[in-house]
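Good morning C.,

I know you're traveling, so I'll keep this short. The sequence:
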Amino acid sequence: MRAGLGIDKMNLTHRVRLLTIDLDDTLWPCFPTIHRAEDALYAWIAERAPGLARVHDQQSLRRHRKGVAEEVPEIAHDLTALRHASLSALLRDFGYDTELAEEAMSVFLRHRNQVKPYADVVPALHELKRHYRLVSVTNGNAAIARTPLRGLFDLSLTAADVGAQKPDPALFRGALKWAGVAPAQALHVGDHPLLDVEAARGFGMAAVWVNRDGQTWPQPLAPPALEVADLRQLGKWLEQTRREA
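The tokens, ready to paste straight into the viewer:
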């Protein structure tokens, strides 16, 4: 655990009422989850739309989805709508009923929500919930209510809910509006230096960097006020600040 400059522990303890917490790579590993979901989706495509599978592999499906995001930027922040639009277009192009896209998305999302939280996460969230309101904020499309973390957050917001992805402040703004608190009364917790730490600081919030893999902080950015290896360390640090206060 490393504390940098910028967090006044005593003031923080008295003022923080809300924790906003990122999901992917903060509470569970993202890429294994997405890869499993995309494997399941591709298996479904091979069975239900074999003509499409004969032409497109998973990489070309990703390229197509990226192209749709560029052509229809108004849905680029909504990863579910984007994937649905891409699948619908491909199914249509290969002569399949576009309504199959609904079934395909059901397969993908079922597996996408089969996340495996890091070992520290569930007990840490239970403890944090005793002292703070908790709101999950994510650029992704995980649905907390369908994961092992259901019931541990007071509110869960996705980029699709607020119309923009971080580093846009819309997710933070939505969380703070719901909680009725000012930015100075909230603390953001996330793994990404730019999309989490820098984005939250730009909105006037204190931010904690969850650095599970011992990464080096990118030099162009001011160092984080606090760096922790997991949520256990965050909980201990917050508990210490409360005791000192």
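Safe travels,
E.
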